[in-house]
Amino acid sequence: MRLRSGILAALLLLPPAVAADEVLVFAAASLTDVLQELGTAYERSAHDHVTFNFGASSDLARQITAGAPADVFFSADVARMEELEKASLVERTERRNVLSNTLVIVTPADAKTVLSQPADLKGVEHIALANPDSVPAGVYAKSYLESLGLWDALEAKVVPTLDVRAALAAVEGGHADAGIVYATDAASSKKVRVAVRIPREQGPAIIYTLAPLKRSTKAATRPLVRFLASQEAASTYTRYGFIVLPAE
Fold first, then answer.
1. How many CB atoms lie within 10 A of CB 218?
2. Residue 160: which domain range?
3. CATH number, domain at 116?
4. Residues 69 and 107 in one domain
5. What global pTM score does this model have?
6. At what angle do helices 231-239 and 221-228 cross, to 10 degrees?
7. Do 137 and 186 lie in a common domain?
8. Which of 26, 25, 79, 16 is nearest to 49 (CA)?
């Protein structure tokens, strides 16, 4: 009895167990592969669990505005993050510009069509783009084509898709003769061939921005954001082909 009493007393002196948080990250579709790896790495060193909802940043921002229970937003452009800031859903001081990317023109790996410059897109029938009216990858692609004076000639050929991964899939499946996607997405596929690489200095300024949602009260939310913007995570982003921006 004395032993049992001693064990009970010792247990009562232990600090209460801390419940693990499940942090929900809404993130751009182009971040799917790298964030899944980083999420696993974070869970190995933390007590918490990370889940992801990947999609077009424009759709994710609308879902958050409508009340979706996201804790963190990782957008493929600044405009979508600014929408949430204007709606008082994120704090400017907590926003971090983390990554950049470049655009490439891809064709199916077995395509006979040869493209060597953007103007060659005039010779194809269908061009897959993430929706150029709203989805960052498509907005970037449209902006680039407009800068070359090609958009008016190519607009009728565009097949708009839900997000950049859907544009990639359209080219992979032969449903489009070509597509414009991020270099990181093209690198993840063996079913497409990069026909044209658009130099970063010639393309639009692509910025991925990260922030916790103000309404998230989970203790793990901001530590996760710090991890995703850390030097520890930077090497993983680089391995997947992203350009890591200098810390602000």
1. 17
2. 103-197
3. 3.40.190.10
4. no
5. 0.91
6. 50
7. yes
8. 25
